[in-house]
Task: structure prediction
Amino acid sequence: MKRLFLASLLAFSFGASAYSVNMDEITNFGNQMRDRFSPPHEIQKANNVPTCLVNVKNEKTGKITRTRLKMIGEHSQKGTQHTYHEEDNTGSTTVWYDSRTGKGEISIMDSQEVIASGTVSNCK
Result:
């Protein structure tokens, strides 16, 4: 009987501690609270994704492809120059453009060399 009582007491006390909350964290209305509930940068700027007209030349075949490209990937900015970089284990793509002129360059690489490169324009 003692073991049953201790087992049930342990089970109920564990359940109660699993649902406990840190009241200091919940009631902390400092700057962290505001940042905690603001949407991530990617979601905030989802409608403001820049697009560019791209002219890309395949380095092996010489074929030129023209298309409109949405700028996604890791974004960095120095002054008016925007750089977008995306990579995986098969290669990478890097696009940079100047926001004043809307012009720049694109480079597409496989795991070893540049496979396509070209120009971007009309970036908005």
The first strand starts at residue 51 and ends at 58. Residues 28-38 have pLDDT under 50 and may be disordered. Residues 15 and 35 are 31 Å apart (CA to CA). Residues 42-121 form one domain.
